[in-house]
Amino acid sequence: MAEKSFKKEVETLRKGAGEVFHGEGILAVTKALLQCGVGYVGGYQGSPISHLMDVFADAEPLLEELGVYFENSASEAAAAAMLSASVYYPVRGAVTWKSTVGTNVASDALSNLASGGVTGGTLVIVGEDYGEGSSIMQERTHAFAMKSQIWMLDPRPNLESIVRSVELGFELSEASNTPVILQLRVRSCHLHGQFIAKDNQKPKVKISDCLNEPKRDVSRIVLPPATFLHEKEKVESRLPKAIQFIKDHKINEFLSGEREDIGFIVQGGLFNNLNRSLVALGLSDNLGNVKVPIYVMNVAYPVIPDEVLEFCKGKKSVLMIEEAQPNYVEQNIGYLLHKNGIDCKLYGKNVLPEVGDYTIGVVKEGLVKFFEAIGENLSSEQKEIFTKKITEEDNKQLLEQVPVRPAGFCTGCPERPIFAALKIVQEKLGQHHVAGDIGCHLFSILPPFNIGATTMGYGLGASSAAAFNLFNTPTQEGQKRPIAIMGDGGFWHNGLTSGIGNAVYNKFDGLIIIIDNYYAAATGGQDIPSSRAFNFLRTTNNPIENAVKGVGVKYVKIVDRTYDVERMVKELTKALTTKEKGPKVIIAQSECSLNKERRKKRIFKKRVEEGKRVESEKFGVDAKVCTGDHACMRLSGCPSLTLKYTDNPLREDPVAHIEQSCVACGNCGEVAEAAALCPAFYSAKVIRNAGFMEKLIYKFQYGIINFLQKRRASKQITV
Question: Which residue ranges does the record assign to the Thiamine pyrophosphate enzyme TPP-binding domain (predicted)?
Answer without folding.
Answer: 439-587
